[in-house]
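[09:14] KT: can someone run the structure on this one? pasting the chain below
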Amino acid sequence: MIENKDSFSQYISYFENIRVWGSIISSRFLSVLFIATAVIFLKTVLKKNILVFFSAIIILGTDGILFNQFSLFLGKAKMNLDTWLDSEEQWFNFLYFILVITVFYLVSRKIYDKKEFYD
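[09:31] RB: done, structure tokens below
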């Protein structure tokens, strides 16, 4: 059934299938790494763990500050075949995640050197 090209409107060859799964796995890994560095960044900025918890929920989990607006960080997943195969979309996600992870890491490292967490 999967090999039948009439069953699907857009048939994906074996090579494209590997590329799609590689893109999905790498983008999910980068998004998890992004969330981890965002929480570490919040921990360096805020002192109390309860503030880190609630601010992470608000920033990462809400759909935006205003109604009908995209989410601040995670956004709603676009799960259609065109965005999976679009190389510009894949490069944008890759570079966006790498840039933000690097910025969070550098700022957290700079603040962490100057701050004592446990007094």
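[09:33] KT: thanks! The chain is about 65% helix and 0% strand.
[09:34] RB: yep, looked fine to me
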